[in-house]
Design a protein that fits this description.
This protein is of the alpha/beta class. The chain is about 50% helix and about 10% strand. The structure holds phosphoenolpyruvate (PEP) and manganese (II) ion (MN).
Length: about 350
């Protein structure tokens, strides 16, 4: 059974590093009673890391902007009375100093801070010589470089316990999610930085509590290492993010419903079957390449014809016709129109590139 998280969690001082490591607690600390009541209920579930926002980055002023430094005293009590590790969001140097002074165990950097290299660099500079884990949320815009850059800046300060939090991306388009997940971005970050543990924040992706379980499950099926789930003792009355917070008992139910699948199996029969199937995939990929090569040769021939007769490379009606036809054809082959559109846009673009190159010759 390969249920362990990537080894990095092992020197974070946790008792239990089984996948997924769970971070739970309210969106915002509201009062000493609220903070401690939630902590007690989470402690009973063997949750080890407690989150609560003290300084809240709100989109518009006049919403609740967090209780501020006084909340750090409540988090200290969580640590003293229940032995939980505490984590809070830091967005500037003052937050860093106050959090460190209060003995916060893990810092996290919010999505609105990750977008800003100046802010990240200042935080990184303030952390030089400090040994503390830092979790970096994805930037609100879908930009892997910005996310990677923020992690590199923190690593550049000598921090060697860094995790990434996937909380979804802001979009003008309507979606059932508050922040669309765009799973391909965290997958790409992990390809580039395989040593960085990946934590899913299904609360901010979902924006509503009924989606949290499905998003969490998907993240585990993508081999994420941990979950950060906003948990409140009275979710509907929460001062921030009420719709997406769950009660401790709902959290318990969600966690117990999750299915943990292994990354790899050691069962020789299964491995043999998988290898066989992967061989089939590789063979089809080879064929795809052959077909694409032949298709491109035809595109080049057409390009020569266009050049000889002084016709433009792009013919918008022809492209629209291809797209309509392939989307229809895709349906007959059980391929989504989204996939077919992406695939043929890329193929078409490559043909155009080849034809334009020819025009320049
Ligand atoms: C939060 O975790 O409460 C928060 C403000 O998150 P984000 O930075 O992902 O919006
Ligand atoms: Mn929140």
């Amino acid at each position: 059974m390969e249920t362990k998280t990537r080894s990095l969690f092992e020197n974070w001082g946790l008792q239990n590093t089984d996948r997924p490591v769970v971070i739970a607690g309210p969106c915002s600390a509201e009062s000493e009673e609220q903070v401690l009541d939630i902590a007690k209920q989470l402690k009973d579930q063997n949750i080890e890391i407690y989150r609560a926002g003290i300084w809240k980055p709100r989109t518009r002023p006049n919403s609740f902007e967090g209780v501020g430094s006084v909340g750090l005293d409540w988090l200290k009590l969580v640590k003293q009375e229940y032995g939980l590790k505490i984590t809070t969001e830091v967005a500037n140097v003052k937050h860093v100093y106050e959090a460190l002074k209060a003995g916060v165990d893990i810092l996290w950097i919010g999505a609105r801070t990750t977008v800003n290299p100046f802010a990240i660099q200042e935080i990184a500079d303030a952390l030089k010589g400090v040994d503390i884990p830092v979790l970096v949320k994805n930037p609100i815009n879908p930009d892997v470089d910005l996310w990677q850059g923020a992690i590199e800046r923190i690593a550049g300060a000598g921090i060697d316990k860094i995790g990434a939090i996937h909380r979804g991306f802001s979009s003008f388009d309507k979606s059932k999610y508050r922040n669309i997940p765009k799973w391909e971005l965290p997958i790409e970050l992990r390809r580039r930085m395989p040593e960085i543990p990946m934590i899913c924040d299904p609360s901010h992706i979902s924006g509503r509590r009924d989606l949290i379980e499905a998003v969490s499950q998907k993240s585990l099926d993508l081999n994420y290492d941990g979950l950060m789930i906003e948990t409140h003792n009275n979710p509907d009355e929460a001062w921030s993010d009420a719709k997406q917070q769950v009660s401790p008992s709902q959290l318990k139910e969600i966690l117990s419903n999750l299915v943990l699948r292994n990354v790899n199996s050691k069962d020789p029969a299964l491995l043999h079957d998988l290898e066989e199937l992967r061989g089939q995939i590789d063979a089809y990929d080879k064929e795809l390449f052959k077909i694409l090569e032949e298709r491109m040769k035809v595109a080049v021939k057409i390009g020569e014809y266009k050049k000889a007769h002084n016709i433009t490379v792009l013919q918008p009606e022809r492209w629209q016709e291809i797209l309509n036809k392939t989307i229809e054809e895709g349906k007959a082959h059980d391929l989504s129109s989204e996939f077919v559109t992406k695939l043929f846009t890329a193929i078409h673009q490559e043909s155009i590139n080849k034809q334009t190159k020819l025009m320049r010759k």
